[in-house]
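Subject: cerkl

B.,
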Amino acid sequence: MDIDDTEIILLNDHPVTGKLPSSNRPSPSNSAASSGRRRISTPVLVTSPIAQKALLSGIFGVDSESYDITLYSTHISMTSMSGKLKGVELHTFVEGETNKLKHDIISLIHPSEETCKRWVEEIDAILQTITGRPKNAKLYIDATASTRNLFNNQIYPIFFSAGLTASVEEHKDIAKVVNDIETMDLSQFDCLLVAGGDNLVNTVVDAVMKKMQFDGGIALAGKESFMAASIPFGVIPMGVSNVIAHTVHGVNDMVTAALNIVYGKTLLSDILFVTHSQSNFYKFSFSAQYGFGSTIMKSVNKSKLTQANRYQYAIAKGLTKSKFRPYGCEVKYKPVNACFGEPLDGATCRSGCTVCGNDNQSPCLDGTRFSDPLQDFNPLELSNNSSQLSEMGVGDISTTKGDYLSISVYATPSPCDMAPLGLSKYTHIADGCMDVVLVHGTERKEFMRFLKRNGNAKNQLDFPFVESYRVSDVSFHVRLPVGWNYRDRDYSEIVDQVRQQKSRIQSAATDESIKVVADGDSTVMAALEGSGSELSDSDDSESISSRPTQSAKSNDKSQENNKPGPTKMSEGYVHVIHKYTEYDRRLKKRNQKDMDREMKAKVKEEKLIKSVWYLDTCPCTETDLTIRVLQKMVIFYGTGMSSNSKEPDVFCFPAV
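Prediction pasted inline below.
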């Protein structure tokens, strides 16, 4: 409170001094002079020099400031409480908009320091009895995030007030994060916090899952038993794509994510186990996109626009004539039992979902191995190998082929800013199933209707050109058109003649091959013992006399060589001697240029007929993938989407 002057009111000829707020101070007028008041100007409190006994004292608020006010018989003394103990602050939260939480502070004002300390000790004792709240964490921050200042101003104070100590690591290179996790002792921390987008979150979760399998001695070869993550993950959305954070918190909000972390609210989530066509492990992921979805993610990662405009630009670009096209693919999948429902059943996954049974108790957080109860078989390892599929039985495997504009696999509903209820509204987070969505080739107008339904309350899967399946295993084999036709510029007539001559020599040597026992002097004995018969002396003499002599053999061979016929080439012949001229050098250089030009045209054409898989937001170099879902393998801090989540009134996709 700014004090410009002090009013001294004369009562019974004794002054009573006190500070009054400027808003309540009477304006100087003739009435003040008639009432016996006089005004003096002073910047400090006027105190009476007469020592008197205080009648009353207390703490009062004046213009949002606290003052210690003492009442004497002749005057009032007011002392500012600025810089002194005022009371106790309780940090809590209040529910704001749908799924959002707001940080709130409750101030308990009391002048006694002993009373405040007693309250603080009792409250701390109660908080110590609450389990599950993290106290020591490892925090990975995306150094390139544009919301770093917002994180420092809003998130750090929440962590500090909750007593959460974090070891911070800022990284621009994803490889350094992976190396750090591989050498980390996870038992030193209560949780791993990730402040970034889906790319950083997927990298951290994938590295931890790989570390768990390696430490548990489990080979990543598609076996049935896996080790779950032994440490919870906290996700703070700070990237361009925050689908994972939106899934576990129900909203894309940093403060809500921080409050869910410090209060220890957890949920379990499924994860996808991805292998490629060579039956080798590739990655852990939460979703997979091929076709239109991968085109969008590629444009979003390359764009330098703001976060709000990147997806609008990417969708508009993906609907252009050069990008909007179907891709051939063969899909083999194993559907789950009918008790798990189907993508079109309309059952959404909300907090306390009975289908997921998300009771915050992971089946493998105690270090035991997890075996998926839905499957007792070796999962699909080769998408185009029927022998791998026969293990599950003929009736269990379904196959579909076609040209698809978009192929999507979801282990979670995958909500985002463009689709608040999820790209797959009726997928559950922890039911041990995944939803496969196949969008057949159709007109651009119809496909835009499908996109718009992702952002409103209608079911985007309810179209005749959309197929959806709830499966436990699925494999994809990309179907490409007939091979590339190009001129073979590596052909050489001389090299071809040499190759033919070598082939004739090898075939002639094969026809005249003689089996010889490589035992030196025991050749004859080995032959006799192999016959099993005893030869008499007469037989021996007869057999020896009947054998032709060495000279006779040589004469016969010379006569045979003198017979007319094709002349045999010696085995030492390698190639026809040819002089390399300047013309040959120029011809080879010209052919190399033509080959490079044709190769560029081949790569360009392959881009038109083949897309790229995106696992979350990470591109995948493989085309034939096999995906299996693992139930309740990852634990996150969050509550998911609340049961009172409202459906959007207007569609959130941009008008294109």
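The chain has a mean pLDDT of 74.

T.
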